[in-house]
Amino acid sequence: MAVTDEAIEKIKGMIVSGALRPGDRLPKESELAAELGLSRNSLREAVRALSLIRILDVRQGDGTYVTSLDPQLLLEALSFVVDFHRDDTVLEFLAVRRILEPAATALACARISDATLDALDSQLDALGPEPSVEELVDCDLDFHRGIVQASGNSVLCSLLDGLSGPTTRARVWRGLTQEDALGRTLREHRAILAALRDRDAEAARSWATVHIASVEQWLRSTL
């Protein structure tokens, strides 16, 4: 395992130093192993590990390439890891989301277009007066993703996407058990949209905080 770790570090070093850039094809296995002073087997294991976390792209019959290294691609691994959380750590994920998402919402205030705001409004209207919990959760995910994307920060967007897994379960549970949870969620969404339309970053930040904190507070009382 230590040999494989060494191989991973050496390939990482080539990418970080710029010797290999996004989209570059790696040298042939025999050549790269010789250049790095590695066995072909340890190099192969390192390539396999780096392909799992989307650093490398192994194309059958074509070779191995450095991926685009786009934040959204690299942070897909976060979603996978987050799915293994324990139920008692959901609150910790929500706490992180409560720090990041209001900041992203405030950033979006100056950038979000009227067309995007209209689309989010229409999305809420389409739910109707009595949506199912599943419909509301799907809308909630799309609603916040649309706002965070408007922040213009792809890393922030990818991080929050990755944190949505455990919080989705909490929102479903809340919707099934808490009185007026659906109506409250919609009212908070409308308040966030109104603040964004007014280009009031602090109000948008505050409503986003209230929205996430309400789920967190409820969940804390039930665990």
TrEMBL record:
Keywords: DNA-binding, Transcription, Transcription regulation. SMART domains: FCD, HTH_GNTR. It holds the Pfam family GntR. Residues 1-69 form the HTH gntR-type domain. The keyword Transcription applies. The keyword Transmembrane does not apply. InterPro entries: GntR_C, TF_FadR/GntR_C, Tscrpt_reg_HTH_GntR, WH-like_DNA-bd_sf, WH_DNA-bd_sf. It comes from the Bacteria. PANTHER family: TRANSCRIPTIONAL REGULATOR, GNTR FAMILY, UXU OPERON TRANSCRIPTIONAL REGULATOR. This is FadR/GntR family transcriptional regulator. It comes from Streptomyces cuspidosporus.
